[in-house]
Amino acid sequence: MAARTELLNNILEFNRRFVTNREYEQFETDRFPDKKVVVLTCMDTRLVELLPRAMSLRNGDAKVIKSAGAVVSHPFGSIMRSILVAVYSLGVKEIMVVGHHDCGMAGLDCGQILEKAKSRGISQDTIDTLIHSGIDLEKWMTGFSRVDDGVNMSVNLIRRHPLLPRDVQVHGLLISPQTGELELLSVPG
After folding, report:
1. Cβ(71)–Cβ(153) under 8 Å?
2. Most-buried pick from 102, 126, 176, 184 (CB within 10 A)?
3. 179 and 136 share a domain?
């Protein structure tokens, strides 16, 4: 077991007070999203509170899935599985892919990431083994040139998924991480 860090200890201590004081009661809801929507968005810290407020989402309104760049990188990966579970088991009728301006995935370079991995102790042998095993690290670790390209790619992958019912609406949006302003994208299909 890993040693506890100061951050982990602080979180656990706060949590004990949170539970003891029954602060969770204000968040009680069930597992079904009231607005019947999935929001796939970026993991950017600026969106944690801003995005729900800008979209008028309260606890219990939506299923929110986060990934770097709001990207669905594989049609049969965990992001798409979560979307399909939300549609078939939780009554979701709309999907909104929300990227944001000034995204770190724009211009992400695989070579730079792998150099940082090596500087943190990942061996070149490990990287070579992954490449020789058929994993396309270049494709997997590369971002997009424009944020709307990333959103469009995810929207189209979701829309075309063979297990997604055609009556589920899929929208692409961009949000400003400074103001929360939303922009609806016209996603070519």
Report:
1. yes
2. 176
3. no
Same-domain pairing of 134 and 85: no
Residue 100 class from Cβ within 10 Å (0-12 exposed, 13-18 middle, 19+ buried)? buried
Answer yes or no: is 123 within a domain.
yes
What residues pair up with 173 in beta bridges, in sequence order?
A: 98, 184
**How far apart, in whole angstroms, are the C-alpha atoms of residue 101 and residue 121?**
32
The radius of gyration of the chain from alpha carbons, rounded to an integer in Å, stands at 19
Q: What gap in Å lies between CA 163 and CA 176, rounded to an integer?
A: 32
CA gap 37, 24 in Å, rounded: 23
Residue 113 lies in a domain: yes
149 and 84 assigned to the same domain: yes
3-state secondary structure 56-88: CCCCCCEEEEECHHHCCCCCCCHHHHHHHHHHH
User: How far out from the chain centre does Cα 144 lie?
Assistant: 15
Cβ–Cβ < 8 Å for 163, 129: no
Mean per-residue pLDDT of the chain: 95
**pTM, full prediction:** 0.89
155 and 62 within one domain: yes
Nearest Cα to Cα of residue 105 among 42, 172, 174: 42
**pLDDT band per the 50, 70, 90 thresholds, residue 127:** very high
Whether the predicted pLDDT of 40 surpasses 70: yes
